[in-house]
Amino acid sequence: MSLDAAEAMKGNNFTARASTRDRCIEVSLTGTADLTVSSQLDNFLRDVHIEAQRCLAQEVTVDVRQLEFMNSSCLKSFVRWICAVQEQVDPGKYRIVFVSSTSVGWQRRSLSALASLANEIVSIQA
Amino acid sequence: MVSIVRRFVEETFEKLVGDADAVFRVSLAVHELLENAAKYAVGDKTDLTVHFESDGAGANIKLTNQTTPECLERLRAFVSEIQSSDNPLLLYQSMMRRKLDVEGASGLGLARIRAEGELDLSLEIEGTVVTVVASCLPARGPSI
Question: What is the ipTM of this complex?
Fold first, then answer.
């Protein structure tokens, strides 16, 4: 799989990419996730979820170390995705691991809030 | 434009305040309030004031714009619910799920400012001109 939203979001200082390796999906987000890209991010995460279902993924890692900021609309895209995974029954359920940076201001507080929604499937690596 | 202002606030206050987390909390509020203004303000004027204690302990962000009576009522209800909650994080988590069906807006910006930013929220209203105030302690330090 190669889900590449970079082209669609060109000019907005935001890229989203995903690739599949075995039964793991690696997602990478860079730039600024704000109002201008929230609907594309919604679609992107929906496609990641569909792909995760298709390949019976065990884990999706989301590398946000290069993501400078995420606004509440984009955060809501993640809430929607996490809730969708939470509603799945095995084998459709998978873990979501955020790979974060302690040096990027928003990540500790915002990712903790996301993880608290579903501690059983969401974890944070710093 | 919103991200440009947020970066400006971050870069300016990072030089003045040695507390990166405090700077983040203020810049979060600036970003979310400005995006709300972009979505709901009418007219062509929005005023933003950011006041920051030099030790990072206090901050005060004010955003003023004109809006519609309908938006004003929704804003009053939002802020009232946030103000009356004694557990902002729990309210934020609850709103995250409740607002999933709301289209065209997150409905989370103010709750995020309260829960993640740990800032108090209040409103000053004159007619249809509203000022949203996000603050922690009274601020007397550098401002822009």
Answer: 0.86
